[in-house]
């Protein structure tokens, strides 16, 4: 049985009231904010029987209002990067806000993460909806968006839907940062990760995909079998993972499939992710630098957490060989991702790691 409740959490001056929704099953408790459709917390038991919150965030509304790292938020209209913030659609060039080096990131300077969504109760959870007006952050067309969070036992289902009155790119995801050890833990080096991708996307020095789809075999991006994150990060060139892993080929229909599994042997906590999206961006919090004071005053530093952002491939609007990211009038965008939070006492070390 899932219980759903809500109450006002704070007032954003000039913008409105932000509510906190609590969705709780016997196994898992999830908190959701109407600001940014943010997952504020996910709590479940470790093998010691103690509940632990595994999502990074803030103690108060002010933290989320000023946040620039998208903690827990739904990002859009287009998640990830668009090269130079430009694209051409139906013969017209669109220029977006550039907010990540030379590129547009996660919808712009005031994306969906900074909007207050309208929330309504649904069976087993909450649905949040938003109208993005024509021209919002430079994007064409009015878009009606909804995201629902529903909880059944240990499984959290996140379902995104959208409709537009003009053709527009769309790519929605949730940007939660996870640490399965709980709050106040310095890093994720003792986590094990596996991602069921045969290929990944190399990027240029501004994190835009080069267009190549490269096999993971024989590279540090081969995560098909579980690896310990700490030693594995040392094999990578650069600050860490911030790459799209290809879960399907560009022309395959969207069907739900297993994407990733992360476990933390010390606590016994396990997170499994499945999705109908063609990619997952695995990000190891490379740009958290200790300047953010999060829950309980904890400083969030580099490699303190990980994100598994299920989504279309980055910069798809500019790369015709990538999966189609355009939403046309009369069509329905439908993205579903499931997070399963369990506890195992029989977790073993992965092979080849000491």
From TrEMBL:
The active site is at residues 175, 309. Its EC number is 5.1.3.3. GO terms for molecular function: aldose 1-epimerase activity; carbohydrate binding. CDD domains: galactose_mutarotase_like. It is found in: Cytoplasm. Pfam families: Aldose_epim (PF01263). Beta-D-galactose binds at residues 80-81, 175-177, 242. One of its GO terms (biological process) is glucose metabolic process. Mutarotase that catalyzes the interconversion of beta-D-galactose and alpha-D-galactose during galactose metabolism. Beta-D-galactose is metabolized in the liver into glucose 1-phosphate, the primary metabolic fuel, by the action of four enzymes that constitute the Leloir pathway: GALM, GALK1 (galactokinase), GALT (galactose-1-phosphate uridylyltransferase) and GALE (UDP-galactose-4'-epimerase). Involved in the maintenance of the equilibrium between the beta- and alpha-anomers of galactose, therefore ensuring a sufficient supply of the alpha-anomer for GALK1. This is Aldose 1-epimerase.
